[in-house]
């Protein structure tokens, strides 16, 4: 039996993913999400007869017959990717539609999506959306972009081609050959690009036709299921429904689930087993999350993959969104250990680094991807921040200041926890929009670096080379004379030595035109007062003096704080170190 393909819609946060699905299912889900951005994966089924109705002219033209029972669409949050719903060894998705604003082209997040698909070896096609915004575009009342193209003038078609070729070039830099759908010569070697408009619905017919066609042509083996096989799925969401209690929304990607089956899932700490009391299946074109509110579920005794369903069962209170859910035969079933391994893998980190807390396994999977190569993560955790998290963050911070961060996605943080973080100097990053996490982390790391730099500059003695000018205002007790800073900077409190490495005294103060300064930097000419020094005996005009740098400061400047020094200061540090060793 061939199941319907699972198609994930991905792309940059505002390029029109959910709006494209709205064209098909005639809903307004995009307007209901936080910040008009889908924050949890939703599932929608488009049945065979709807696909045939929309695509019949195209299918008849190419002589294709629809064999798949329909298409199950998944809408991902922002550019979060399909790491939210994965099965052992790969992605749940059979095919991906990457939505790109044809007028903006690739964004950084689009490239990230393409790289994820590359690593998962998942086939994809591109919906070049918002063609209605191309200058001169004449909207048509057809769902076919091919028919719409025949209505456009030559200048508009040229603008369209320029934008399509820009996407082709961007895909080429990612290692993919691609072409506009009507110019593709080899579907096995070229990524299909379909111009679309979520606003006017142009291109929807070709989009559905190519999804169906590619699925049937290249994914038929993958779509074959053992109908009698044990059901396997992934939890999208846990929620309380009036009249049902706590329920779970699930994507069933393999096998069959029946009322009365025992199912296993994770609550984040252990694997639990419960018995299915009811299965609710959304009616066609109804998105899983909104079906319950609209009363558009139908009760079924059993269901086969692929499907988005709601499961009614006892003891679902701790079920974690993102957890695998398998039909099992008792507590000794080998799938129990498989679930444990999946969850442990999702929560494991580097042992030291920042701490990441999220509301679902899927969120943590996505955050793991976004934080790759940006910082180490000590561990990933579910739920709100605890005092234990703060204690761990403090210990990691002692090793490295940039580890004193806790990232919180879509979880509430109590006032007392916020106050404790502030008291201990732990930075909190809180957001409900997942694509903001990378930017906020970079900003926070920059803040920490600047704070660290400022503190280091205040406390570390930096390399300084000064030239004594022929201006002496007082010979001793203290000596007051003019200097020019040739390299680095000087501050009150710095010890000075001469060219033989002998100490001559400590800077008491720095003045310029009778104004007291906290420091003097390269190029400045200032007057300094120095304790325990006598002008003319310990040094004279045109003498070169250097800062004396404590051993621990030298080690810090060579290592952790080397970024404080330019090349000239690094060379001077080496010279000062040699002078101090000689003396």
Short description:
The protein is of the alpha+beta class.
What does this molecule look like?
The protein is of the alpha+beta class and 583 residues long. The protein has four domains: 6-223, P-loop containing nucleotide triphosphate hydrolases (Rossmann fold), CATH 3.40.50.300; 232-339, Elongation Factor Tu (Ef-tu), domain 3 (Beta Barrel), CATH 2.40.30.10; 348-457, Translation initiation factor IF- 2, domain 3 (Rossmann fold, 3-Layer(aba) Sandwich), CATH 3.40.50.10050; 464-582, Elongation Factor Tu (Ef-tu), domain 3 (Beta Barrel). It is 31% helix and 29% strand. An eight-stranded antiparallel β-sheet has the order 14-13-19-10-11-18-15-16. The longest helix is centred in the last third of the chain and has 24 residues, at 436-459.
Tell me roughly what share of residues is in helical segments.
Answer: 25-40%
Compute the CA-based radius of gyration: 33 Å
Shape: elongated
End-to-end separation in angstroms reads: 87 Å
CATH homologous superfamily assignment of the largest domain: P-loop containing nucleotide triphosphate hydrolases
Care to count the β-strands? Answer: 31
If classified by CATH, what would the architecture of the largest domain be? Answer: 3-Layer(aba) Sandwich
Low-confidence stretches: 78-84
Chain oligomer state: single chain
């Amino acid at each position: 039996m061939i199941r319907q393909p699972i198609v994930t819609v991905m792309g940059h946060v505002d390029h029109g993913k959910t709006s494209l699905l709205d064209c098909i299912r005639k809903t307004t889900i995009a307007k209901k999400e936080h910040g008009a951005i889908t924050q949890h994966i939703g599932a929608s089924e488009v049945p065979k007869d709807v696909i045939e109705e929309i695509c019949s002219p195209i299918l008849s033209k190419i002589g294709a017959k629809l064999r798949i029972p329909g298409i199950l669409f998944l809408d991902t949050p922002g550019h979060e990717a399909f790491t939210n719903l994965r099965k052992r060894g790969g992605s749940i998705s059979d095919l991906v539609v990457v939505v790109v604003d044809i007028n903006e082209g690739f964004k950084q997040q689009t490239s990230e999506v393409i790289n994820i698909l590359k690593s998962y070896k998942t086939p994809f096609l591109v919906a070049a959306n918002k063609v209605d915004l191309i200058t001169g575009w004449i909207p048509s009342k057809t769902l076919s972009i091919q028919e719409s193209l025949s209505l456009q003038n030559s200048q508009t078609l040229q603008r369209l081609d320029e934008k399509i070729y820009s996407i082709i070039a961007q895909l080429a830099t990612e290692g993919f050959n691609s072409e506009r759908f009507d110019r593709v010569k080899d579907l096995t070697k070229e990524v299909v690009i379909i111009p679309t408009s979520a606003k006017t619905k142009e291109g929807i017919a070709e989009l559905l036709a190519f999804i169906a066609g590619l699925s049937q042509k290249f994914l038929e083996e993958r779509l074959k299921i053992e109908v009698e096989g044990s059901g396997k799925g992934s939890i999208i969401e846990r929620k309380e429904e009036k009249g049902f209690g706590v329920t779970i929304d699930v994507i069933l990607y393999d096998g069959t689930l029946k009322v009365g089956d025992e199912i296993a899932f994770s609550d984040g700490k252990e694997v639990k087993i419960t018995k299915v009391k009811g299965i609710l299946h959304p009616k066609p074109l109804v998105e899983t999350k909104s079906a319950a509110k609209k009363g558009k579920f139908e009760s079924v005794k059993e269901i086969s993959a692929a499907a988005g369903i709601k499961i009614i069962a006892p003891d679902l209170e701790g079920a974690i969104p993102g957890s695998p859910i398998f039909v099992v035969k008792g507590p000794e079933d080998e799938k129990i250990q498989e679930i444990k391994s999946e969850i442990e893998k999702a929560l494991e980190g580097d042992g030291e680094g920042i701490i990441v807390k999220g509301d679902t396994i899927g969120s943590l999977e996505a955050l793991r991807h976004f934080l790759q190569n940006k910082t180490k993560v000590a561990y990933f955790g579910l739920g709100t921040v605890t005092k234990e998290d703060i204690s761990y963050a403090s210990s990691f911070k002692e090793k490295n200041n940039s580890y004193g961060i806790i990232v919180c996605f879509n979880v509430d943080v109590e006032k007392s926890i916020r106050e404790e973080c502030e008291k201990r100097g732990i930075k909190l990053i809180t957001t409900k929009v997942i694509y903001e996490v990378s930017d906020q982390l970079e900003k926070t790391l920059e803040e920490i670096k600047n704070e660290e730099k400022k503190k280091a500059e205040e406390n570390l003695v930096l390399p300084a080379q000064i030239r004594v000018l022929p201006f002496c205002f007082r010979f001793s007790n203290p000596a007051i004379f003019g200097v020019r800073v040739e390299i680095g900077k000087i501050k009150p409190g710095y010890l000075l030595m001469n060219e033989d490495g002998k100490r001559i005294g400590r800077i008491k103060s720095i003045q310029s035109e009778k104004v007291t300064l906290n420091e003097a930097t390269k190029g400045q000419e200032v007057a300094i007062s120095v304790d325990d020094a006598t002008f003319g005996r310990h040094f004279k005009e045109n003498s070169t003096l250097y800062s004396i740098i404590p051993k621990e400061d030298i080690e810090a400047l060579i290592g952790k704080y080397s970024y404080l020094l330019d090349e000239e200061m690094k060379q001077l540090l080496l010279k000062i170190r040699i002078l101090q060793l000689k003396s």
